Every structure is written in structure tokens, then in C-alpha cells.
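sanity check this record:
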Amino acid sequence: MQNRELVIIGGGPAGLSAAVEARRLGIKDVLVIDRESEPGGILKQCIHTGFGLHVFKEELTGPEYAERFIEQAENLGVEIMLNTMVIELTADRRIVAVNSREGLIEIQAKAVILAMGCRERTRGAINIPGFRPAGIFTAGTAQRFVNIEGYMPGREIVILGSGDIGLIMARRLTLEGAKVRCVVEIMPYSNGLTRNIVQCLEDYGIPLLLKHTVVNIHGRKRVEGVTIAEVDDDMKPIMETAKFVPCDTLLLSVGLIPENELSRLADIEIDEVTGGPVVNQRMETSVPGIFACGNVLHVHDLVDYVTQEAVSAARGAASYLADGGKKYKHIPVSPGNGLRYVLPQRINVDAMPEERQNFFMRSVRPMAKARLFVESERGVIKSSVLRYVKPSEMISIQLDRDEMRGIKMLNFSLREEGDSVERGE
């Protein structure tokens, strides 16, 4: 049995950022465990630019962004255990891992940060009719094939779902000589960042078909085409609009799911909306001494937000190690009108690691000229005008400790300008 001060599970952007911050805060014994042969996580295959604008104030590719944290971790003496799979985590922070070199490894940690990331939703999760031919990939798998392995998944492509990975792959495959027939999205709006709609689809003349879905996959040995159809307001296909689109490949960009099998083993409370743990102001889960950050907590659109959250988790872990796991009473943080969720879900103002607290949230639908309200039992604490919001783009706001001191609850709501509201001012 190894005894460790801080163990971070996952060596992607969240895990690396947390490890670097933990060492800077003076935690000497920091171990990162990752199942892959190299650290960096999903960033290794994201060769496009757009990373680092918030953290480094410059535009980087995914590998460049990851390399900066890998170098910082190495310079600070962070130990990274690669090719190692964590198979068990208990509520008392006992970790069981396995690799081909050391076999079974048992670790007792004083604190744990979960940074396992997320996985893609597959065909089985959305139940598309048809046979099981070759040529059906998740967008992330296709991205790895093209950018790391050097293989083309196909030549005539249809992409189901307008998530950011799917949009980026539409451009990537076009640049490699493939023909992207269309991107099909069941919602009446895109689920990707606006900049990716413009740069990856509009700039290359790739059609985006909103309120459409794939209703059948044709072909036995290899995909020969798909049937797409419009959907009604209840998301049900209107079969009278069905049409056949010839293709040899179908890419699925239909959502991401936080990897929380280990969290459930440790009996950590899971938020049904985010799919990740319920956390407090220092990113601590319902199990004392276990923290979470990044896509294992909730799916992010920008890696810069992942880094900010990982820094908070590291500071929370340092605070926990320093105060001996002191227990605090928390007030509830809840989403109101116009919001799907708010994170963190509970907070203790006096135990905030910093003077300001970041809150992250997503809207339930696109809105123009929306106003974000933060309210307590006393009325409106703060409000902010947002020029445009959509579910795929994260909303964040900071509150000062003094703005929240003495309150018993926090409620966040989002209203389009013109909606009536009790201002309380």
C-alpha cells in the first residue's frame, strides 16, 4: 500500500492543470495517474487552433496547449504514472490501479481530484435503425484516425449532430479531400460554438440541416447511404420529408457523457442534469477529500474553462489538506428560469478558497439580449446583460465574497429582455 498526499486521476488538461497548481501551492507529493501512454488527454488529437485565448492570451493548437502544462508539471516535479488504469475508488480515498509493469497497485490518498474527462455518445444510445455496416464512427474516433493514426474514415461523409467535434471534423475531412454531404441536427439550433459554425461549415459551403435527423442507415458490409428526414416539434421524424443521401461514412457527434464510473463506486452524489458530481465552492464532491474538475464534472466548450476549474479544485484540495477536512454548512445554489444547471451546486461563503467565486451555467434555449439575474432571499444581488446565449456556449459569472455574505440561498435565472421581473433594487 502506497501512501500519497494528493492523487489526480486523469492526465488530460484538467488533471495537468490541477497538478501544476497543487505543486505551486506547496503540495509536495502529487501523483497523476493516466491510462494512456502520453499525458495530454483529448488535446493530443485536436490539432486545430482556438485553445488558450483566456489562459495564455494567445491562440494555440491542442497539442501546444497540453505541452505547456506537461512542461510545467515536469519542471515542478509532478509524478505522472502512465499506462495505468484505475479500477476502484472508495469513499475513504483508497485507489486500486493496474498496469503491465507493476501489476496491481493500491494507494491510500489524503485527497483525490477526479479528472477523468468524458466519452462520446454512440449509435446504441440514439437507436438509429439499420444494419451494422462498417463506416459508422463517433466524431472523436474519426479525429484520432485522421490526426494521429493517419487514416481516412471515408470519402463521402454525413455527420449527425452539430457538436463542436463534428463541426471541426467536417472542415478537417474536407481539407483532406473528402466530400462532406451535410451536417444533420435534430434541434432547431446548432449545438456547437458560433465560431465553428462559421469557420467549419459556412466557409466551406457545407450544408447544416436543422430540425433533421437520420432515420435509417443503408448497407450491410459498408455504409451505402442514409435516409434523413425533418422532425416535428416533438422531435419525431416526418416521414413524408424523408430523402436518401448517398455516403460511405456516418460520423456521430451526438453528445458527451462525463466518465463517472469511479465516482459512483465511491458513492459520490451525481447531478442528474450534468451527469457529473455535485460539488461545493472548492470543487469538493459529497465525499470529503474527493474533488472533481473538467469534463468529468460537466461538459465544457472551452479548455480554458477546464483549466480555471482545475485550478479551483487544486486550491480546494490544498485547503482541505490544510484544515484537516473541517466540515462546513453550505447553502443551496439552484438554477431558475431559463437555465439547465448552475455549478457549483452548493457553497459556503466563508470557506471560499479565493475572494471571488466562479459560477458556470448553461441556458435551456437560445436567447437574444438576455439578462442573467443572481438572487438571494433578500432580492437581486447582481445582474448582467448577455448579448446572445445558446445551450452550447457556457455562461460564467463571478461573485465577490462580500456580495454573498450572510445569505441563505442563491438562485440564478436567465430572462430575455422584455420579460417582467421583480428587480428588488
User: Anything to note?
Assistant: Confidence is low (pLDDT under 50) at residues 419-425. The CA atoms of residues 162 and 191 lie 5 Å apart.
